[in-house]
Amino acid sequence: MNAEEAVRFMQHYRHDLMNHLQIIHGYASMGNVKKIEEKIVDIIHCYNMERKLMHLQANEFCLWVMKHAYMYVDVKLEYDIHTEGKRIESIDQILTQQCEQFFAVIKRLKLKDEFITVHLVVKQEQKDRIAMHFSVSEFFNHAQLKEQLHRLETHFPLTVMDNSDTVECSFSVPCN
Q: What pLDDT band is residue 40 in, cutting at 50, 70 and 90?
């Protein structure tokens, strides 16, 4: 990430934070304590996910996830991290490249005006393995996406599943 991208990322991040604070301020001005509490719980959840992402000790992967979660409108990444105390720094670059390959297929196949949300779940699979599970829903070129992902040559073997309106892709990576 060069300096221009870093500043743009910080602008998007700050913009999102300001949006959250303005929403809380609006609820406070209306005296809606329940909505304030719900919003704060949501924000805490987001920051806990970021903390868990950073604890994976995979700097390139962390930047890749954060960039796709905050900076891109047409292909947005949502993520949940369900690991504690697991590190993947030894495969950071390979993992990031594989995620970039996956997103390149999506970006190549999506329609010009199509907005795609990709959900990533990272969870401990075994003592020394972490599962990366991507799901893509509401994708117009659903069949093509599945076909292209089956043909994708990757370092970590992919499992591609088709669940009616969702294409799911998983792979597992070593951790320590």
A: very high
The whole-number pLDDT of residue 55 equals 94
Residue 149, CB half-sphere, CA atoms under 13 Å: how many?
29
pLDDT given for residue 4 in this prediction: 87
Structure tokens at 3: 């300096």
Residue 138 C-alpha from the chain's centroid:
17
pTM score above 0.85: yes
- CB burial of residue 69 (10 Å; 0-12, 13-18, 19+): buried
C-alpha to C-alpha distances, 24 to 10, 34, 137, nearest whole angstrom: 21, 11, 30
**Nearest by Cα to 46 from 83, 84, 79:** 79
From the list 96, 106, 115, the residue with the least C-alpha distance to 152 is 106
- 83 and 124 in contact (C-beta within 8 Å)? yes
